[in-house]
Amino acid sequence: MKVTFFSHSTCLLEIHDKYLLIDPFFSGIPVFHNVNFIKFFKKIDYILLTHAHYDHVCDVELFSCKFDNVLIISNYEISNYFHKKGIKTYGINYGSFISFPFGKLKYVWAAHSSVFNDGTYGGNPGGFLLHTDEGNLYISGDTSVMYEMNLIPSFGKLKLSILPIGGKYTMDIEEAIMASDFLKSEKILGVHYDTFEDIKIDREQAKKKFFEKGKELILLEKGKTIYI
Length: 228
Description:
By secondary structure, the protein is of the alpha/beta class. It has one domain (2-220): Ribonuclease Z/Hydroxyacylglutathione hydrolase-like (Metallo-beta-lactamase, Chain A, 4-Layer Sandwich), CATH 3.60.15.10. The chain is built from 5 helices and 14 strands.
């Protein structure tokens, strides 16, 4: 499995020949102003949306116009919102694993909020637990640490957890370490930090704190990739 980080919480997963884009947010970031970021992508099969906040959904329509066969996967309310705009969607909610060509996907809990910029209710915020023949991945979405995270490893050992670490709106470094303990996860890709002034972190100090707990915190530059 190939994981590429682009911005904020936006990542691209490549699983065999399937391409999954997570929470696309480019337009609202200064570094991408006047940049045709769509050209970075040759193919998108699915877009996974954790919740309805602008910094996670603002470029969904741009990508759906470029890749007309893309399928949005999110909770019922978000899926219904984009379905009304003529975009193909697959609505799910907290429940069982659902099989897709790339593997099994489960929508899981997140302690956050969820509303579109126009005030439309975005349903329950969540994350995704992804099981594939290349390993298992947990995408927490925007969340505080939750005791429910203890349930995640009972479904299968994780190769990677994608966790927010910027604080204020989500977990900070210390809470993300606690979450990784609940998840029994040793390898963490940090997201949702440094995009704005109020979620700036000390990167080296963050890595050190994870290392002291026997864990690896991965902080990727824009466009960089890891393989798991």
